[in-house]
Amino acid sequence: MGTAKDAIKLAKDQKAVAVDFKFLDFLGTWQHFTTPISELEDDVFESGLGFDGSSIRGWQPINASDMLVVPDPSTAVMDPFMAHPTLSLICNIVDPITKEDYSRDPRNIARKAEAYLKSTGIGDTAYFGPEPEFFIFDDIRFDQNEHAGFYYVDSTEGRWNSGREEGPNLGYKPRYKEGYFPVAPIDSQTDIRHEMVLAMESVGLRVEKQHHEVATAGQAEIDLRFLPLVKMGDALMWYKHCVKNVAKRHGKTATFMPKPIFGDNGSGMHTHQSIWKGEKPLFAGDGYGGISELGMHYIAGILKHASALCAFVAPTANSYRRLVPGFEAPVNLAYSSRNRSAACRIPMYSPSPKAKRVEVRFPDPSCNTRGAERRAVGSGLARRRAHRPREGPRVSTERRRLHRGRRRDLARVQADARGRSAAPASASVRVLALLRRLIACASRFRPLRSTRAVAACFLATATAHPRRTSAP
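and the corresponding structure tokens:
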């Protein structure tokens, strides 16, 4: 880990003339301010620098606005997009009175999640490998005023421009849902993506691959090598920064909006997750998909808390334009070893224990990535003591919906899906089910209140003495 002296030495070696202090707000926007290099001294890394916390969305009220940024020296790199040599530092937020880490600082939340994982004794490192997708557009316009409202996006790659006069139009436009992933000249943006990769590598990120994605109009994906939770949060901020600034350098706009184009695939952020203890991958085992019991517990936690997680990992109204059938989106609240429509997928590319992980597919890149990753860890660990999910086929959404209110029938449907026959319900079970339905119906009508009372008394007796309800 770098020290304050290492950061100052880097600035001197690179002849930096300024220092850029960056931090993440509650909603996931990277904020910054810049000082001359003469302001960078050893005590800055201890005492920090002040700023107005009331001007940051969701943070401090105006009567308690003073806050501190305290830079982390291990994050020191040279910013590749400044016109003048500038050292960049990622900061933590601290209360100037109590000197405590700020509870609404996403980086602090991520650090606490890592500490919590270690405190459980289950593991000591949570690795995350996100796959953010994005579009590179040539034109974006929007407005909302007293007499009109509209949005407009355009790309030279867009299939809708196949008949446009371009002097000349060469016709290399990826068809809808066919952008994954032909070579050039159909893929016209490989050089731009490669420039983005080089910018990421210049700030210390390790990139695994880059390619065109499924949609037309310049959808792209660049995959980062997995990292621990806090470091990946920092890396994703640099990722978005590099993508947007390289696109702007080419006169284009990059957007991480989940569904900017109707009728074609949207942009997700499938996130690979695993927990390790030392050099041991804890998700590797001999269960379904080669996953351990802990891994299945982790999946159970994600699925159980999926609706709450969506508030953080798919936070915009546009996020749910993406999560619809027909566009390779994860629309099934289930897990699978290969099915990409499942909320949780178990990749089967390699049998190596080190490659065993869970891919959570419903997040999208519009989210605050630090908060999303921290809540994924919390949800996964929350079910570590739950019963292991049963192996085998899951009941389809349609069949589950049809039998939602009929527990006995649902059990039979689930048994049939697993290739087993369900034993018919006993007479006592049938009688108890009839009594419960009678009570439910009688409670709705005043003339039947006495019937309801009689049924309730009989149900109480039957529950206490189940043998009396058996049919001859």
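(Above: one complete record from the training split.) The first strand starts at residue 18 and ends at 24.
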